[in-house]
Design brief:
By secondary structure, the chain is mainly α. It has four helices and two strands.
């Protein structure tokens, strides 16, 4: 038994794959990966010598780009789709945060029995006048 730390495999964000392995895993040519990097579609990490390193998430992204282009979308369209997907994920995350915050606030406010709705402002009354005939 070793006395060192227990081995923890790298997570999906760890940049561990060289371009040839990433190309094989994604089913794309290495030159295609270089083009996608140049266009900003997939941005691998760089080693000190300038070599590209891809993560599992990068491989998934490369596969998504390949699928979208196979379906007839141009690279600029793919870039826009990826931007919108990132925006949707960020918004979903923010909605979840706000829902959790709202739930925390609701649980801290005491409920009054027999009042199904919380009043936030004074009720408004409408006075109806009848005209003399």
């Amino acid at each position: 038994m070793s006395r060192g730390k227990e081995f923890v495999p790298p997570g999906p964000e760890a940049k561990v794959f060289v371009i040839s392995v990433a190309a094989e895993l994604s089913g794309l040519h290495p030159q295609t990966l270089r083009t996608y990097d140049r266009l900003g579609l997939v941005s691998p990490a760089r080693t000190g010598g300038g070599g590209r390193r891809y993560s599992l998430r990068d491989i998934e992204l490369l596969r998504s780009v390949a699928q979208l282009t196979a379906e007839g979308l141009g690279l600029e369209g793919v870039k826009r789709v990826l931007e919108l997907e990132n925006q949707v994920m960020a918004l979903q995350s923010r909605v979840a945060e706000l829902e959790a915050e709202l739930e925390a606030r609701d649980s801290s406010v005491p409920r009054v029995r027999n009042l199904p709705v919380r009043f936030t402002e004074a009720p408004t009354f409408v006075v109806r006048r009848s005209r003399a005939r």
